[in-house]
Amino acid sequence: MGRFRAAPVSTAVVLCTACAGGAAEPLACTEIGAEPGVSITISETMTAAMEDPVLEVCAAECRTYPVDLFPGTEAVDLGCDSTEPEGSCSASMRPDGTLVGFVRVDELTAGEVGVTLISGDQHYRSTGTPQLVYPNGRNCPGEALQLSVTLDDGRLAIRS
User: Fold this and answer.
1) First vs last Cα of the chain: how many Å apart?
2) For each successive 10 residues of the chain (160 residues), what is the average pLDDT?
């Protein structure tokens, strides 16, 4: 008789385990978020032309923002100490001659926007569509609209 009473309990445990096995894992998201705005790269050949640059962004209306530029860098591979999985590799950063910056633009829209980089009496224009970026992946919060531009050879180009 004890054998028959244990069977329903065992069956219930097996069914509950099977149900739990199909449940989705909880999603782990970091607290990292993106800021809406425009990232700017000035090529090495254009850095001397930068005089108190400002960025004009035109969507529903035009607004002008100051641009803070900083020296750009590139990674230099310093190699690995081993080919084994527990080995380590390293890299260091060095200046690459570019200037980079980011302008926060809370009013950035999903449609096409006009951007003009103004430096002294020079105006470099382009148009582009900001893209949503997901620093934690598409299933986590923290996304924002961003646009990336590069000034090279006197031309402002949208980067994707």
Assistant:
1) 72
2) 47 45 69 94 96 94 97 96 90 97 94 97 97 91 95 94
